[in-house]
């Protein structure tokens, strides 16, 4: 009996998770990423003829709790209309029973990838641009709670977007300031001791 390689097992696992988009306006293009409770897929919106990202609950996740959390994340994002927060276009339940939401597809790099070649002035400008949507969210009673370089995208035209609001808390008492979340981000940035140009 031949054992399957890790890459083959990972591919089979991804193929098993391909969402059933029957009855929706979306068509899967390819898998983009996997998170704690679901996967993100590049899809085509067949009505508007544009690429979008679909965040879909995994089949193995307990539908009730995780489905409600995924839709809560979509509602949080929908309520935070800011140029630095990825916009949500749609949300619902697929034919296979999994919750999903549709958002803008962002092409670019994570902050961790993007920042390596930047000098100190460019890094500080980026940090300031990251603080804007975080501060906006705080002004609306929302704490991100998972701010890290991998959850910040720098788009192809330099746009900065804070992503993955799955752990966000709404209306938290004792709301921390944007300063504290940004300080945490600085500590998590690769090679924080090497922030010189």
Features:
197 residues, alpha+beta, Phosphorylase Kinase, domain 1, Transferase(Phosphotransferase), domain 1, 2 domains, 5-stranded antiparallel beta sheet, 5 helices
What does this molecule look like?
The protein has 197 residues and is an alpha+beta fold. It has 2 domains: 11-104, 2-Layer Sandwich (Phosphorylase Kinase, domain 1), CATH 3.30.200; 108-188, Transferase(Phosphotransferase) domain 1 (Transferase(Phosphotransferase), domain 1). Helices cover 32% and strands 26% of the residues. Strand 1 (26-34) and strand 2 form a beta hairpin. Helix 4 packs across helix 5 (178-188). The longest helix is centred in the middle third of the chain and has 20 residues, at 120-139. It is globular and about 55 Å long. The model is unreliable at 192-197 (pLDDT under 50).
């Amino acid at each position: 009996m031949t054992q399957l390689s890790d890459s083959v097992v990972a591919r089979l696992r991804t193929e098993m998770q391909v969402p059933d988009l029957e009855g929706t306006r979306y068509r899967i293009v390819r898998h983009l990423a996997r998170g704690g409770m679901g996967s993100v897929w590049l899809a085509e919106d067949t009505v508007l003829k544009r690429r979008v990202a679909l965040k879909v609950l995994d089949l193995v996740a307990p539908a009730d709790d995780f489905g409600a959390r995924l839709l809560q994340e979509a509602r949080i994002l929908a309520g935070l209309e800011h140029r630095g927060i990825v916009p949500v276009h749609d949300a619902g339940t697929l034919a296979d029973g999994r919750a999903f939401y549709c958002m803008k597809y962002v092409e670019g790099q994570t902050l961790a990838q993007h920042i390596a070649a930047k000098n100190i002035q460019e890094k500080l400008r980026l940090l300031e641009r990251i603080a804007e949507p975080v501060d906006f969210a705080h002004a609306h009673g929302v704490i991100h709670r998972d701010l890290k370089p991998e959850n910040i995208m720098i788009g192809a035209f330099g746009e900065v977007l804070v992503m993955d609001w799955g752990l966000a808390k709404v209306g938290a008492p004792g709301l921390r300031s944007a300063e504290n979340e940004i300080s945490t981000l600085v500590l998590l940035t690769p090679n924080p001791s090497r922030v010189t140009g």
